[in-house]
């Protein structure tokens, strides 16, 4: 099983970043990535997509994924396979997430995503330098 956690950040000046954290066995990886998004919800979807895409690109699609995020919009959309206003974002996310053996999306409070949040904030700072 792989534990994947993502967080998206969107700044008023239009910059966006993703924090991606995943753990398989005792191996933990962290990525801070610049993304493109139109608002905070879109940033959360883009961060989730980036996380699943990285795992897929690493050839890990035969794994079960325990996915956590502080975005209720992303978790609800994945569970219902529907999103009002973010349908294209959800379609892109599911196109990658559905490649995995099994995905368990779970909402967690913001206080439990501080590492992913810090990585997303780093991506914002990279763009300001």
Q: Into which percentage range does the β-strand content fall?
A: 25-35%
The major beta sheet can be summarized as: 5 strands, mixed
What share of the residues lie within helices? Answer: 40-55%
Helix-strand topology string: EEEHEHHEH
Oligomer: single chain
Arithmetic mean of pLDDT:
97
Work out the radius of gyration: 13 Å
Distance between the termini: 37 Å
Task: Identify low-pLDDT runs.
Answer: none
What's the overall geometry? globular
Question: How many H/I helical runs?
Answer: 4
Give a description of the structure.
The protein is an alpha/beta fold and 129 residues long. The chain has four helices and five strands. A five-stranded mixed β-sheet has the order 3-2-1-4-5. α1 runs parallel beside α3. The N and C termini lie far apart (37 Å). The mean pLDDT is 97.
Summarize the structure.
This protein has 129 residues and is of the alpha/beta class. It contains 4 helices and 5 strands.
Defining key terms:
129 residues; 5-stranded mixed sheet; 30% strand; 4 helices; alpha/beta; globular
Task: Reconstruct the topology from this structure.
Elements: E1 2-10, E2 16-24, E3 27-35, H1 40-57, E4 64-69, H2 72-80, H3 87-97, E5 102-107, H4 114-128
Helix pairs in contact: 1-3
